[in-house]
Amino acid sequence: MAEDGDSKSLASDVAEQIWIGIKTKEEHQQQWSSGWFVSYVNWHEDEKHFADNDACAVRNKEGVWFITSCSRSLPFVCEYSTAVPPQLKSSVENSYCPETPPAWRDLGGDYCYYVDTKERVTWQDANFLCMRRGGALLSIHSKEEMDMLSRFVQHQDYAIYIGLYRQMDLDEEFVWADKSELDFTLWNSNEPNDVREKCVELKTEDMRWNDINCNEKRGFICSIKKIAPNNTVEEKSQISSCERGFSLGDLVGVIICVLFVAVLIGAVVYYFRLCDRGYVRVKKEIIWHQLTATIRI
């Protein structure tokens, strides 16, 4: 349902409400049951967020969309199309998203994505949280990538941080946090409009960008490069000890290091004590010889 004109004429004579092909299988991801991403919406003004994972969509005679339980029995309208939904293809066959930390989403292409709108943070904190997951705040490099992302985050009433910011030592030019080339932008009208606003948010309602004060609190979207099949061992080796926990070998290594340091400190203390004792003995001998010489005189 790219446009609503055809469906409106079909549905007006059917019932007060009919099913349309949207089901929220995953948080913030809207996709038609045909596989196409959602490029047209007409939600009721109260339908800002999906209540749960068992949420489907209906439309009334006026063409307005509502969220309701998928278990209801309602009329429906079908369509048939031979067109194939667009999707970015990965440059590496059989590449996949990291399993840890969880919740990376594969939308096609060479990257996986993670969106968090519940934890509202500053741009710096958002960048840190993405780095802690092994990725970076999102960088975007083509209209095709924006179209792909739109089915993941579009048409929800919120704004999220992306990885674009003003680099102070580069005449305040915008750069990506992941150091990739700035070869694509999608600014909102009359944006960017304030040099004091150093960071960038993405308005999910229309997927346009806006410069913003970095201390404003927003949700955020991270990206990470997919793993090639032959990089499995390397990927596992990059998991930090904090993530995998201490093993017995780690514990033994720590104990050995502590013992080595203790022995080294003991040896140094013992050496200085010997030196001190030798100094005292020599000092006593000097004093004794001085006294003996005085008595003789």
TrEMBL record:
C-type lectin domain span: 1-79, 108-223
CDD domains, alphabetized: CLECT
Alphabetical list of SUPFAM superfamilies matching this protein: C-type lectin-like
Superkingdom of this protein's organism: Eukaryota
TM segment ranges: 251-272
Keywords: Disulfide bond, Membrane, Receptor, Transmembrane, Transmembrane helix
InterPro entries named among the record's database cross-references: C-type_lectin-like (IPR001304), C-type_lectin-like/link_sf (IPR016186), C-type_lectin/snaclec_domain (IPR050111), C-type_lectin_CS (IPR018378), CTDL_fold (IPR016187)
Residue ranges that the Swiss-Prot or TrEMBL entry lists as coiled coil: none
Name recorded for this polypeptide: Macrophage mannose receptor 1
Source taxonomy: Eukaryota, Metazoa, Ecdysozoa, Arthropoda, Chelicerata
